[in-house]
Amino acid sequence: MTLRDRLPDIRGTYAEAAPMARHTWFGVGGPADMIFCPRDADDLAGFLASCPADIPLLPVGAGSNLLVRDGGVAGVVIRMNQFMTAIHHDGNEITAEAGATDADVARHAARAGLAGLEFLIGIPGTIGGGLRMNAGAYGTEFRDITIRAHGVDRKGQTVSATPDEMGMAYRHSDAPADWIFTHATFRAVAGDKAAIKTRMKEIVASRGDAQPRGVRTGGSTFANPPGGKAWQEIDAAGCRGLMVGGAQVSEKHCNFLINTGGASAHDIETLGETVRARVAARGGPALRWEIRRVGQEGGTPARTKNISGAKNISGAADTSRSPGTTGRTGA
């Protein structure tokens, strides 16, 4: 009996032996046994209620903060950003499905004249991933704006929780591992549309000045250690520009790892572990991976070359410079 034979009928889509390199910003990673894109929350709940318990499941969003190893992913990858991307507002509250991008939620709020969510324009990824890791930028985190998050558990049962109930902390939440977020409601305040859009432009410009653009990267690689900055520790350890195979520590912002065009997932992970070891060797803190690493070692590496217009860390196509050409800004 094949894996497909064991899976329930759904209203969304299945794809067998699907290359994960196509679904991550790094552009690397082996195939998933199966990818499931749920049509909506009910479709997801029905799938979970009927899916055999021994089949591994991995929910993913935009693949911006994800490193899939070269051996691929066993079981079913659940891609939330194919269909579940709706956003709407009611008064000063905005509800977004888990597959909606953070940037699209920020833009929706701006069009509605709702302030407080501008920081989302600078966070790569989707709402579901932001809830899971309590993503944040510019002094604001998901826990500061979330009223309640909703999802389903491995048995297909509906669940919900507030930030306090999920124990949200810096780049962390205690939400049960088997929860898959479906949507969340966020608080905002009435604001001036022009001022909101100006602030969003400032954030985009600031990130563009300080971080690599037009290259394949997973965003910030390591969480900042208590009282410090990860990039400063990496720079002090002499790792700026360090390479392993086709993977490189960004010259522009050394808390970013880059696929220069021919990297494998093994190259990228080995480079990250080398950086951690060098920081520790000089008495620095134990850097904690912020990028999620999943899948199996081995296999034939999937290599996706850099192309002009590759997604940058804001989630938008960037053609302002050739991939891999970055300046040094000391960040």
3D structure, described in words:
With 331 residues, the protein is of the alpha+beta class. Among the domains are: 3-79, Uridine Diphospho-n-acetylenolpyruvylglucosamine Reductase, domain 2 (2-Layer Sandwich), CATH 3.30.43; 87-195, Uridine Diphospho-n-acetylenolpyruvylglucosamine Reductase, domain 3. The chain is 23% helix and 26% strand. The protein is built from eight helices and 21 strands. Strands 6-7-13-11-12 form a five-stranded antiparallel beta sheet. A four-stranded mixed beta sheet has the order 1-2-5-3, with no helix packed on it. Strand 9 (136-137) and strand 10 form a beta hairpin. Helix 3 (102-111) runs antiparallel to helix 6 (193-210). The longest helix has 18 residues, at 193-210. The radius of gyration is 20 Å and the shape is globular. The N and C termini lie far apart (53 Å). The relative contact order is 0.16. The model is unreliable at 303-331 (pLDDT under 50).
Largest sheet: 5 strands, antiparallel
Indicate the CATH architecture of the domain at 87-195.
2-Layer Sandwich
CATH topology label of the domain at 87-195: Uridine Diphospho-n-acetylenolpyruvylglucosamine Reductase, domain 3
Radius of gyration: 20 Å
Question: Helix/strand-derived class?
Answer: alpha+beta
Gap from first CA to last CA? 53 Å
What proportion of the residues is helical, as a percent range?
10-25%
Work out the helix count: 8
Strand percentage = 25-35%
User: What is the average per-residue confidence, as pLDDT, rounded to a whole number?
Assistant: 90
The ordered string of helix (H) and strand (E) elements is: HEEHEEEEEHEHEEHEEEEHEEHEEEHEE
CATH class of the domain at 87-195: Alpha Beta
Coarse morphology:
globular
Q: What are the low-pLDDT stretches, counting only 5+ consecutive residues below 50?
A: 303-331
Largest sheet strand order: 6-7-13-11-12
**Count of individual beta strands:** 21
